[in-house]
Amino acid sequence: MTETATLLADDPIWLILIKVVGIFAFLVVMTLLTIWAERRVIGRMQHRPGPNRAGPFGVLQSLADGLKLAFKEDIRPLLADKWVYILAPVISATPALVAFSVIPMAPRVTIFGEETALQLVDLPVGLLVVLACASVGVYGIVLAGWASGSPYPLLGSLRSAAQVISYEIAMGLSFIAVILYAGTMSTSGIVDAQAQGWFFALLPFSFVVYAIAMVGETNRAPFDLPEAESELVGGFHTEYSSLKFALFFLAEYINMVTVSALATTLFLGGWRAPWPLSTVGDDYFNTGWWPLLWFLLKTLSFLFVFVWLRGTLPRMRYDQFMNLGWKVLVPVSLLWIMAAIVLRGLVTSETVSTAQIMWIGGGAVVLLVFLTALIPDKKPPEPEATAPLSGGGYPVPPLDLEVPQSPPRRTAVATSAGATGAASELPGDDGDTTTQEAPRGDV
């Protein structure tokens, strides 16, 4: 049992309730601030002001939008399965809140005279709790698409299920090297293991894989494919409105905060102060309430990256996205895990030091990037004029589908005896009168 677990075991009931309410309030406030910051940052990227009317700097705009959303009409489709339709957003939002309970925000603080840690619970399998919550959350998305009774939400939910499962595997593989070097799956134990150095420098590939997987796991741009408006109208929540839609919206942003906090815990030392503040005094900046500040700053930096990606990168094609997960991240992660095991064994046997391994690994990465840059780009051969287009393996329309020319317009031609604008009537073969067509140049 870790020191944090021993400290949390003595928490009274009233302190546990304060922590529960505090975590809920923290996540809701972070959601409102993240939405506001996202709109402001993307507005600055696109040379427009963003929200600036409600409150100072428009900070109350998210609160106003949330209140307006709560009072909108709640419409349920006629073909929807009533109870599953109502339960689905709750299933999506609840695991997102529960996952944050194992995140350590500060080591040892005093609340109303009671010494405790800023963490709700410290479990020996804390990382598995986060993965389990992510797995349960996707059920809400799938059930929402199925219960809506409409084909477009169903398509969005199926795409989301495939996406989340794919990137959960990559995310789980990125945990293995961290667990191997920390020697525990406890989140507080992982933070303690980074006292001599953060894991993002020691395990850079695991950090990159997790950073990509957390964007795909939260369905954020450029991986927001389950709700691709150009293909699926609005995704799995097309038929939702009012508070039920707000729960899906809340779950997405809470998941962003949770995966950002988990990235901070796993790779950026958690609540530990950055260098050189970590060397000041008798570990002064890693005691009291200072660690909460470092934790929040690191988490906010990851949230800024989410916003940055949304304002910068276009949405990927779905097959490219799935290929990235299954054909790149998963196999390369397995190779990295084997390399990490070998390096860990060498360090344990004192054959080489950790610093030597970091220098060797950095040199190998630089060499790989250099060699990749030297490889010439091979352009595909130009297709022959008579050969049909293949589209690179994807269906394309046949070449004989050309847009037909519009038929000549019919207009009235005036006769010399008739009034201007009157049609000249000519006898047809069957005795009927026909209207003479004017040349196209006269139209």
Mean pLDDT across residues: 83
The SSE string, one letter per element, is HHHHEEHHHHHHHHHHEE
Query: How would you describe the shape?
Result: globular
Structure annotation, total helices: 14
Biased composition (Low complexity): 411-424
Main location: membrane
InterPro entries: NADH_UbQ_OxRdtase_su1/FPO (IPR001694), NADH_UbQ_OxRdtase_su1_CS (IPR018086)
Family: Belongs to the complex I subunit 1 family.
If you had to describe this structure to a student in words, what would you say it looks like?
It is found in: Cell membrane; Membrane. It catalyses: a quinone + NADH + 5 H(+)(in) = a quinol + NAD(+) + 4 H(+)(out). NDH-1 is composed of 14 different subunits. Subunits NuoA, H, J, K, L, M, N constitute the membrane sector of the complex. It comes from Allosaccharopolyspora coralli. The chain has 443 residues and is mainly α. It has a domain at 75-114 and 123-369. Helices cover 57% and strands 4% of the residues. The chain is built from 14 helices and four strands. The strands form two sheets. A two-stranded antiparallel ribbon has the order 1-2. It has a two-stranded antiparallel ribbon with strand order 3-4. A hairpin with a 2-residue loop joins strand 1 (106-111) and strand 2. Helix 2 (13-45) runs parallel beside helix 12, helix 4 (82-99) runs parallel beside helix 11 and helix 5 runs antiparallel to helix 6 (151-182). The N and C termini lie far apart (89 Å).
